[in-house]
Design a protein that fits this description.
Layout (H helix, E strand, L loop, with lengths): L1 H41 L1
Keywords: Membrane, Transmembrane, Transmembrane helix
Organism: Pseudoneobacillus rhizosphaerae
Protein name: Cytochrome c oxidase subunit 2A
């Protein structure tokens, strides 16, 4: 029983890490595209 609980907790924390990494990556990409779009519109 204990090993199953530990494994589930590890999977949850891994998922949480990947979700936060994905959100940060998406924000960076969106910011980059917005800045790039503004730069192209100005030029």
């Amino acid at each position: 029983m204990a090993t199953k609980v530990n494994r589930e907790k590890e999977d949850d924390s891994k998922m949480g890490t990947w979700i936060s990494v994905g959100i940060v990556g998406a924000v960076i990409l969106i910011t980059y595209f917005v800045l790039f779009g503004l730069f192209m519109a100005r030029v």
